[in-house]
Amino acid sequence: MKILVTVKEVSTVENEFEIEGTTIAEQYLGTDLNEWDDYAVEEAVQLQEGGIADEVVTVTIGPEDCEQTIRQALAKGADRAIRVWD
């Protein structure tokens, strides 16, 4: 059995930031793997280690910048990762 986990990149904000108009200035924004998707990848890897699944595949949709999210999922133990261009 293969497990497919969808992952999404979300914005993070530093502790101190400035607001430009109605948005947060770009230099204070970062990106990270969505917390709940992180849990899903970990659970899928545990199922694989327990012999229930054969392969863990993650998929995300987005621009080239979201490749860091894919790398994080692979570092957690996913076997393959797919990025769909947006």
| Main sheet attributes: strand count, strand direction, barrel closure | 3 strands, parallel
Q: What portion of residues is helical?
A: 25-40%
- Which oligomeric state applies? single chain
Structural class: alpha/beta
The sequence of SSEs as H and E is EEEEEHEHE
The percentage of residues in β strands lies in 35-45%
Question: What is the strand arrangement across the widest sheet?
Answer: 1-6-7
Q: Judging from the principal axes of the Cα atoms, what is the shape?
A: elongated
Overall tally of domains: 1
pLDDT < 50 stretches: none
Distance between the termini: 28 Å
Descriptive overview:
The protein has a three-stranded parallel beta sheet with strand order 1-6-7, with helices on one face. Strands 2-5 form a two-stranded antiparallel ribbon. A two-stranded antiparallel ribbon has the order 3-4. It starts with a strand and ends with a strand. It is 28% helix and 38% strand. The protein has one domain. It contains two helices and seven strands, in the order βββββαβαβ. It has 86 residues and is of the alpha/beta class.
